[in-house]
Design a protein that fits this description.
heterodimer; A: about 0% strand; B: mainly alpha; globular
């Protein structure tokens, strides 16, 4: 049999198990193209493109719920602008760029609970990781491509209401062109702030999900982390603060959602609420968000370096 | 009852119970649950570290905020959906259902196993925390411990029964359970007080008020209503699960 296939012996690939199938003759795009393809594919997968309608339901409903208040403001901008002009509505009560994430960030957690396990768990459950790792792409490339796609999806979710608010505010103004000029500096801090939120929350959710091949258990793990690490440090801070301990001041830095809300305050220059420790500035929360992102990205990459495939 | 079966269903139930407990425990997730159940004790030690014995604050933030709101539903959803869901996933449900046992006995013993483990973990967590932080406060502490043990038992039974029933209808029971806990109980019931009648967490808190009112304001449901509603929920869920199991089409273990 072997002798009947002389091209196999002379092929540059020199493969051991050459069964004589036709070879790929095209250009090989290499490591970065493979990682880019995985990035695009998993970004499509998060939104359910190329999958049945049932896979699109969760991401679109949750992203829609997160954007809902901003869309409502946009829809009623005509009556709201009248109401503001007559003094019946205080503009500070409405959702704005600075207070949006702090208001309904819960939906971001739900989005991650639903979609982060989608990104990584099935590859382990159906044991297809070896197929990825035999390609030009390395293990860390796989982890980073998956993480970047989740962070990109999350950034999109976070930015939709910002854009809706932006359009709404321009429509409420008297002169659209002047309104654009005065509005964009107010909206601009949303971009770095939402980048930090997306990177930080996506890295936590993906690092935790990568430890379970079952999507359901990964979802429980992600949920338990976000709920408990949100709650427990605040409880300990409350009691320690009363007792006069100083070291408990650092505890609010550990909380994932509240911490990012305070980081968001730093980007917008909003003063930190009085029930947070005065010794910790808003900038520390930004730093905590960055450290947490690096830490969980490290855990994720480490997991894929060690995983048996 | 099935006539001519060699064993009465009552004698088979402890066996199903035992097998289910072993199925539920031998997993890595048990470790996660033990970690969650250790939280009240750890937080109690932190309270003592700061020399505080504050029954109301501890029980409101830890027993209510951490245990009944987060740990109890997560434990119940993992055990409740795992009790029958794992057998469906792996295809071993066939061997169980092929036995000449009435279906209610299967449902009941599975639900009892899941409930027993859930209550063991959560009530144990409460007692451990209470011994360190609540009971040393004297009479008030004992009453508060009773209240939260009562609330946890009622809430745990309801959650497990509902999640066992849901797991018989859909394979995505765990996701539905999480969604219910987070959206319905977490988000909506704080916004819309009217749905207290349909929230297991409110049943549990209502039952707790029977012993002593620990919270700053009374629970949304009076204790009598809460007990009646939770009994209705448990019975309805078990009947529904039995009905479903009687009309079950087995599709083999292909997942």
């Amino acid at each position: 049999m072997n002798a009947g296939n002389p091209s196999a012996a002379s092929s540059p690939a020199g493969s051991i198990y050459d069964l004589g199938y036709r070879h790929y003759e095209g250009k090989r795009h290499g490591r970065w193209f493979a990682a880019w393809s995985l990035y695009v594919d998993s970004l499509r997968g998060i939104w359910g493109f190329g999958r049945p309608v049932s896979a699109k339901a969760a991401p679109f409903i949750l992203a829609g719920l997160y954007a809902l208040p901003a869309v409502i403001v946009l829809a009623f901008s005509a009556s709201l602008s009248k109401s503001i002009a007559s003094g019946a509505t205080n503009p500070a009560d409405l959702p704005n760029y600075a207070n949006y994430f702090g208001g309904i960030g819960t939906f971001i957690v739900l989005f991650l609970v639903a979609q982060a396990p989608e990104v990584v768990c099935r590859d382990q459950r159906y044991q297809v990781l070896p197929l990825y790792f035999t390609r030009a792409m390395g293990r860390s490339d796989y982890a980073m491509a998956r993480l970047l796609s989740l962070a990109t999806a999350l950034f999109l979710v976070l930015m939709v209401p910002v854009i809706a608010l932006f359009i709404g505010d321009i429509l409420m103004g008297t002169d659209a062109f002047k309104a654009v000029g005065s509005e964009w500096p107010k909206a601009l801090p949303s971009i770095p702030s939402n980048l930090l939120i997306a990177a930080s929350m996506a890295s936590i959710a993906l690092a935790l999900s990568s430890y379970s091949p079952r999507r359901a258990y990964a979802a429980v793990g992600v949920l338990a982390y976000f709920l408990l690490v949100e709650f427990v440090p605040i409880v300990i801070y409350g009691i320690g603060h009363e007792a006069g301990a100083k070291w408990v001041d650092v505890l609010p830095l550990l909380t994932p959602i509240t911490g990012l809300t305070r980081a968001n305050d730093w980007f917008f220059g909003t003063p930190i609420p009085a029930d947070f420790p005065s010794s910790i500035g808003a900038g520390a929360y930004v730093l905590a968000g960055l450290v947490s992102t690096l830490l969980f990205t490290g855990i994720l990459v480490w997991r894929y370096r060690r995983i048996a495939a | 009852m099935i006539h001519g079966s060699p064993r009465s269903p009552i004698r088979a139930m402890p066996e199903i119970f035992r097998v289910t407990v072993r199925q539920l425990l031998g997993r890595r997730r048990t470790l996660l649950l033990l970690l969650l159940a250790a939280l009240p004790l750890l937080l109690a030690l932190v309270f003592r570290l700061f020399d505080r014995i504050d029954v109301q604050r501890y029980s409101n933030s830890v027993f209510d905020g951490v245990l009944i709101a987060i740990v109890l539903p997560l434990t119940a959803v993992l055990f409740g959906t795992g009790a029958f869901g794992a057998e469906l996933d792996e295809g071993t449900a066939l061997y169980l259902l092929a036995k000449p046992l009435p279906r209610w006995a299967v449902v009941l013993s599975k639900a009892m196993a899941a409930a027993a483990l859930t209550l063991l973990l959560t009530v144990g967590a409460i007692l451990a925390g209470a011994l360190v932080e609540v009971i040393p406060a004297g009479e008030v502490g004992v009453r508060a411990t009773e209240a939260y043990v009562g609330a946890t038992v009622v809430g745990g039974l309801c959650y497990v029964a509902v999640f066992v029933a849901v797991s018989m209808f859909t394979r995505r029971a765990l996701v539905i359970g999480i969604g219910y806990t987070l959206i319905w109980e977490g988000l909506l019931s704080s916004l819309l007080p009217g749905i207290a009648n349909l929230s297991i967490r409110q049943y549990a808190l209502g039952v707790g008020d029977w012993f002593v009112q620990v919270g700053r304001e009374p629970a949304r449901l009076p204790p009598e209503t809460a007990v009646v509603l939770s009994a209705v929920v448990v019975v309805a869920a078990l009947v529904l699960a039995t009905w479903r199991l009687m009309h079950f089409e087995l599709s083999g273990g292909t997942d």
